Amino acid sequence: MELWLMIGGFSGIAAIVGFIGILIKIGEWKAQVDNLRDSVKTNSTRTEALTLMQNQQNVLLAEIKIKLDMLLEENCKKKEKVK
Predict the structure, then answer these.
(1) Residues in CB range of 12: below 8 A, 6 or more apart
(2) Pairwise CA distance, residues 76 & 70, whole Å
């Protein structure tokens, strides 16, 4: 009878150790998920910043294009007057 009690005790301890091991693995998994979530937030912020910078560059390029077009028109008009 004592042998069965020892076997039961060992299996109970093994079950508890296994359960603690699973909790540790779940904690590690949760930490990895949290790290991934943080990196996604960081990447989202970077993407928004890049989009804003690209929009600003597009506005500047549009202004430069308008000014160059105006200069080209003025040059064409001056050349026509000279002829």
Answers:
(1) none
(2) 10
Residue type, 11: S
Whole-angstrom distance, CA of residue 37 vs CA of residue 34: 5
First to last CA, the chain: 121
Predicted local distance difference test score (pLDDT) of residue 83 = 60
Which DSSP string corresponds to 40-82? HHHHHHHHHHHHHHHHHHHHHHHHHHHHHHHHHHHHHHHHHHH
Residues of the chain whose pLDDT is less than 50? none
| CA dist 67 → 38, 75, 81 (Å) | 44, 12, 21
For residues 7 and 10, what is the distance between their CA atoms, to the nearest angstrom? 5
Q: Check residue 4 and give its pLDDT.
A: 84
